[in-house]
Design goal:
Layout lengths: L13 E5 L27 H13 L4 E5 L9 H9 L6 E6 L4 H11 L3 E5 L5 H8 L4 H13 L4 E8 L8 H8 L5 E6 L7 H7 L3 H10 L3 E2 L10 E4 L6 E5 L12 E4 L4 E3 L8 E2 L10 H12 L25
Parallel strand pairs: 1-2, 1-10, 2-3, 3-4, 4-5, 5-6, 6-9
Antiparallel strand pairs: 7-8, 8-9, 10-11, 11-12
């Protein structure tokens, strides 16, 4: 079947599938006041998730990342992993988590088919970690990362949102951590969302600042692989880990976009920003609707814009990153 492609020639084989917008952390840049549901949440069921996965696999999806909110808050998280891992055509199943359940469940999730894991750790200083996340379980999160490494995950990554006043000077601390740990660090530029304009103005730190420091210290840019997205990956012969930079405000960031998003309530998002989502849930009720669901996916790609317009100060329709899985 024909793969998903937009009118700019970009192909999409990576699905970020949100299964809840709930989160139990209170990260300053996302949910500083904690999670407050808008009415009673009605997240997709396992059967609806199965049909989403089947449809996307039919149009070329090879990688699925299960996201939230905090996806592991769902009691059936392991079942979702199993569904994704056993969908014909899907080759890699990943998740992004705050890591609070990782130490206890890393082995079971690996056995269910999870192969890659990203853990959000915005500071390696426990005091600063609590200040940013509103949670004191730093040691438990780090234990989870150690457990995931021991369980042999294909990739273990740490996501770090760059925050000028909180972790902008902590590059040496992070470099020291990956000196002997085979972990990929991902430094992510803070992005402006609808509810966080003032916070963005105070704390935005361009990724180019970190990039310059890395290059001056002898880190070299890795060749881009055929399935790579917008991240720039750096290596150094003296370090076991690597560093990735995600810089959405950099020139041509969107040129290598390869991912689509489905929210926990069954809406297709062509971009993390710019639009309010395209309804899929009316086509998730039965397997007989698979063909029209696939047709809707193809039709939707005709609406995808060339860029996210963040450069123009347009934060789009996304209120916060937890709402559609970041």
């Amino acid at each position: 079947m024909r793969e998903l492609q937009d009118r700019f020639g970009r192909s999409f084989h990576y699905l970020r599938l949100s299964i809840t917008d709930a989160c139990n952390f209170k990260c300053q840049y996302c949910l500083p006041n904690g999670y407050h549901p808008d009415g009673k949440p009605r997240f997709m069921t396992l059967e609806e998730i199965r049909r989403v996965l089947l449809a996307f696999a039919q149009v070329g999806t090879r990688k699925v990342r299960i996201t939230g909110g905090e996806p592991t808050l769902r009691k059936d998280f392991e079942a979702v992993v199993d569904l994704a891992a056993n969908t014909p055509g899907v080759q890699r199943v990943a998740t992004t988590t705050n890591g609070y359940r990782l130490a206890e469940h890393a082995k079971a999730w690996r056995q269910a088919g999870l192969s890659q894991i990203n853990v959000s750790v915005d500071s390696l200083d426990p005091v600063q970690f609590q200040r940013i996340t509103g949670d004191s379980r730093f040691d438990l999160v780090m234990k989870g990362i150690d457990t995931a490494l021991a369980e042999g995950y294909d990739k273990v990554k740490i996501n770090v949102v760059l925050l000028k006043e909180h972790n902008g000077d902590q590059l040496p601390l992070f470099l020291n951590y990956i000196k002997h740990q085979p972990v990929d660090l991902r430094f992510i530029e803070l992005m402006e969302t609808g509810l966080h304009h003032d916070y963005f103005q105070r704390h935005h730190l361009p990724g180019a600042v970190i990039q310059q420091q890395l290059e001056q210290a002898g880190w070299t840019l890795d060749p881009r692989g055929p399935d790579d997205g917008p991240a720039l990956n750096y290596s150094h012969p003296d370090y076991a880990g690597r560093i990735g930079l995600i810089m959405p405000y950099a020139k041509d960031f969107c040129a290598t976009c390869n991912r689509l998003r489905v929210s926990a309530i069954g809406k297709l998002h062509l971009c993390l920003f710019t639009e309010a989502g395209i309804e899929l849930r009316d086509l998730l009720g039965s397997d007989e609707q698979l063909a029209p669901l696939v047709a809707r996916l193809h039709a939707a790609l005709g609406q995808k814009h060339e860029t996210h317009y963040l450069h123009d100060g347009n934060a789009g329709a996304t209120p916060h990153l937890a709402s559609i899985g970041g």
